[in-house]
Design goal:
The complex is a heterodimer. The longest helix of chain A is centred in the last third of the chain and has 17 residues. Chain A is built from five helices and five strands; from the N terminus they run ββαβββαααα. By secondary structure, chain B is α+β, with helices and mostly antiparallel strands. Chain B is built from eleven helices and 14 strands. Classes of the chains: A alpha+beta, B alpha+beta.
Chain lengths: 158, 287
């Protein structure tokens, strides 16, 4: 079945098995392996990507349902070799240990900051509630998102 | 591996044609947060899916005279944030905001939550106390109004025919009435309800009884349990700081009647007492 959508700014027209989920197409057809399948049930958030600006679990989206949509994955955040503010903040704050949850965490944070550039701590926690981390204990992740928000406000960037 | 065929109607007209050609053998796919898991985890015979997500006519929240109408494919994020629900159906907005995670709320739909008929569904207690009705359409375009309370038939199974689809949910606006929803799970967020509850009532002033009270308890069985005894008590008791304690006992008795012999009864009959206080607190805070 043919499905057309945009991923990280590039248009794709793909012939896929209709049973494929968005995560399957991203990882297996497009080699965008940043999104991870941690659970396949929408519980861990490691597969989080943006779909038309909203954070979604790509393991729960049938690829056909992404037709006509604009998808952004972790690979789509860096621009001309420069990391996104959120990515840099995660590094600066030690918010990455094994790195497995990181793409999903950053995409959830990205979705939050696109909608709410000045979130409070509780709003950050709510936005990240669907992303599990077994390493960091979350504090540094929340601080990293706060720092990224502050920096983006200072720089006037989104 | 399950072989899947997907139909993608773009309008209600195309949906009717789809239902004609495939419905007895097809599953309706809305947000996919329940169905896609079932497809991935369970190898089964070949399936046909009818994807409703492309039908923009099924996504709306509007005021129609003295009722609020919601398209069946409206997402939980949309429900949680819409000003019409915050004003006229706060209980439903609260239920929506406490369901799943941001990622799940951005995809899950109200029609899907109802049709999935989980005993722990978040929207159901809120919808039942709001007297919500579903507009259900069949393959010939014929519509009927079905109380949302009558759609779940058994855990995970709804009472609709194979050729029927939920198109709209609506509930009446009752002037002066407020609704609220509360939930208990094994953790604070992203949790299936172990027990949930909703209330809809008219607040008439300090130290006076509430009016038109409806209380619904969920996660007790396939249907939301209406707590008539507790509702009647509230309608005849001036609202005060001690009201919650007696209401808590009445709700515990309701749980006793609903799930006799169930292993979770000792937990749920105590837990519901906390929910009783939570349900009343917004009304007490008005004083």
């Amino acid at each position: 079945m043919l499905v057309c959508f945009k991923v990280n700014g590039k248009e794709y027209s793909l012939d896929i098995d209709p049973s494929m989920r968005l995560i399957d197409v991203l990882r297996k057809k497009l080699a965008l392996t940043g999104a991870k399948e941690g659970c396949g049930e929408g519980e861990c958030g490691a597969c989080t990507v943006l779909m038309d600006g909203l954070a979604v679990n790509s393991c729960l989206v049938l690829a056909i349902q992404a037709r006509g949509k604009s998808i952004v994955t972790i690979e789509g955040l860096e621009e001309n070799g420069e990391l996104d503010s959120i990515q840099q903040a995660f590094i600066d704050h030690g918010a990455i240990q094994c790195g497995y949850c990181t793409p999903g965490m950053i995409m959830s944070a990205k979705a939050l900051l696109l909608k709410n550039p000045h979130p409070g701590e509780e709003e950050i926690k709510t936005a990240l509630a669907g992303n599990l981390c077994r390493c960091t204990g979350y504090n540094k992740i929340v601080k990293a998102v706060q720092q990224a928000a502050d920096k983006m406000m200072q720089d006037g960037t989104r | 591996m399950t072989k899947v065929k997907v139909e993608t109607p773009g309008s209600l007209e195309e949906l009717k044609q789809c239902l004609h050609s495939v419905r007895d053998r097809a599953f309706l796919l809305a947000g996919g947060t329940d169905l896609v898991i079932k497809l991935s985890k369970h190898s089964c015979e070949d399936v046909i899916l009818v994807d409703l997500s492309g039908i923009k006519e099924l996504n709306y929240i509007k005021k129609d005279g003295n009722q609020i109408s919601i398209g069946a494919c409206t997402t939980f994020s949309q429900l949680a944030e819409h000003r019409l629900l915050k004003e006229h159906g706060l209980g439903l907005a609260e239920a929506a905001s406490q369901m799943g995670s941001v990622q799940i709320r951005n995809r899950a739909t109200i029609g899907g939550n109802i049709a999935n008929a989980s005993p722990a569904a978040d929207s159901l207690p809120a919808l039942v106390v709001l007297d919500a009705v579903a507009v259900v359409m069949d393959k010939d375009g014929k519509t009927e109004r079905v109380p949302v309370s009558e759609i779940p038939a058994a855990p995970g199974h709804n009472s609709l025919r194979k050729d029927q689809v939920i198109c709209q949910i609506s509930f009446p606006i009752r002037p002066g009435c407020r609704s609220h929803y509360v939930k208990l799970g094994s953790r604070k967020t992203v949790t299936i309800a172990r027990l949930n509850a909703a209330i809809c009532a008219e607040y008439t002033g300090k130290n006076t009884p509430l009016r038109q009270v409806k209380i619904g308890l969920g996660a007790l069985g396939p249907h939301v349990v209406l707590a008539h005894e507790a509702a009647n008590f509230l309608e005849h008791t001036p609202l005060g700081p001690e009201t919650g304690e007696e209401m808590a006992e009445l709700l515990a008795r309701e749980v006793d009647r609903a799930i006799p012999g169930r292993y979770s009864l000792p937990y749920k009959r105590e837990a519901v007492k906390g929910l009783a206080q939570d349900l009343l607190r917004p009304f007490l805070d008005l004083e």
